[in-house]
Structure formats: C-alpha cells, structure tokens
Fold this protein.
Amino acid sequence: MMATGINIGSVMTRGVISVKKSDTVAEAAKLMKRARIGGVPVVERGDVIGIVTEGDIMRDIVATGKKHDVKVGRIMKHPVRTVPPDIDVEDAAKIMRDLEIERLPVVSGKRLMGMITMMDLVRIEPALLELMKERGSLEMVPTTEKAVSIAGECENCSNYSVFLRNIDGRLLCEDCREL
Ligand SMILES: [Zn+2]
C-alpha cells in the first residue's frame, strides 16, 4: 500500500483527556467511561509519560483483585509509544498493528498534542481496515472526547495548557476562562 499522504496532525483528536500518575485507577476508569474512550495518556506538566487503558485496568485490577484506589502510576504502560504529528496515517496504522495497540498519543517533543485511534484511521482511510485485519479484533470504541481536563493549545491565547475546558465550543486555558 502507498502512503496515504495524510498526516496524523491533520486528523488527530485535539484537546484530549489525560490523567496524572497520582490519580486513582477508579478515577481514570470513570473518566474513560464518561468520555467513551478506551484509554487515556498519563501526563506530567504537559509531557506524556505513559498510557492507561481499560484493558490494563481489567487485567491489573479486576483480574488480580487489587483495590481501585491504586494509583495510575502503578499500572500505566511506560515508556509509551508516541508519534509526531507529521507521520503518515498509514505508518501510524502499522505501528498500532505491529504493537497490537489501539491508540497512540501524538506528541511534539514529549508534549501531548492529540490522540489517534485505530478507529479514527479506519474512518479516514477505509483501506487501512485491511491492514488492521492482519491482526486480531478491532476495538470499536468511538472517540467522542467531551473532556474534563484536556491538553492542547488554548484557542484564545495559544498557550499550551493541560487544563483546557470547552467553553461555548472553544477550548480555553484557565487564564482565558476567567476573562
Ligand atoms: Zn488562553
């Protein structure tokens, strides 16, 4: 297959939910359920340091009977595979297929810029579905990220913030929300 010519930066979800190492697994699980996503990046001062997925929670907490007050930092996957925004959609799809993961944080340096999931890619380029079928089942989780704590550039001042909120359709940082 040829490269699609579409880069991840143009199709990623911007303003993504993230959690901190010190958040509990229960909080992370609730956040994912509410946002109907299967995994969230773990962020420290804007840098991606790990990822925690529903699968991790099921395996590490439910299966072993650990308590839900376990901190995200103890069960997150790290280091985490990330991609830069300028990578081709097909290359991102191959990374996900080869690592058998469903989502990738998109970073500039280590800074969280967005998220991309396999479902996003298949929607954008249905031909990629064939590539995905070469491995096991697809996780059909829609990414309707109505965020609580979201990371990205403020649409008013352009500063980077991990605490953007959606105010009347614009993602605003803490400072701009108060104006
Ligand atoms: Zn701002």
Observations:
- Confidence is low (pLDDT under 50) at residues 136-148.
- The longest strand covers residues 160-167.
